[in-house]
Amino acid sequence: MIEKLRLTTRFVDDQDEALRFYTEKLGLVKKADESFGPDNRWVTVAPEQDETVEIVLELPDWSEDEEEADRRAALVGEQPALAFTVDDCHATYEILRERGVEFTSEPQEQPYGIEAVARDLYGNGVVLVERPSETETT
């Protein structure tokens, strides 16, 4: 049976630019950066405390199939949001805003916790969610 999510992919126009954004702006850590031949590179990032899932920063044209590469290129900036759990949404919002991350909504109370929504450098959503503590929900 399926046990856990291991990888998710974010198609990007420039792996170095995306790597800088996800590490320097969002504070994720680089997990892998491997070259495969002259034109392919495997780059992943993840939250420092998350040992289960990594985000692959992949160029759309990695596919040998031209039609598939075109389909992937059209997804740059149109991908579903990545949602991250944070310990303090207000503090994380301020830190990321000071680093130049663009937010589309400030931290707001939601039924599931406090949420703020940002954009990555391509316009994809980056959601920050602070879950209510156990003492607040009981």
Automatic annotation (TrEMBL):
Q: Which Pfam families does the UniProt entry name for this protein?
A: Glyoxalase
Q: Which residue intervals define the domain VOC in the entry?
A: 4-131
Instruction: Tell me where on the tree of life, at the top rank, the source sits.
Output: Archaea
Q: Which Gene3D superfamilies match?
A: 2,3-Dihydroxybiphenyl 1,2-Dioxygenase, domain 1
The family database entries (PROSITE patterns) matched by this protein are listed as: VOC
Q: Which InterPro entries match?
A: Glyas_Bleomycin-R_OHBP_Dase, Glyas_Fos-R_dOase_dom, VOC_core
Q: What is this protein called?
A: VOC family protein
Q: Which organism is it from?
A: Natrinema soli
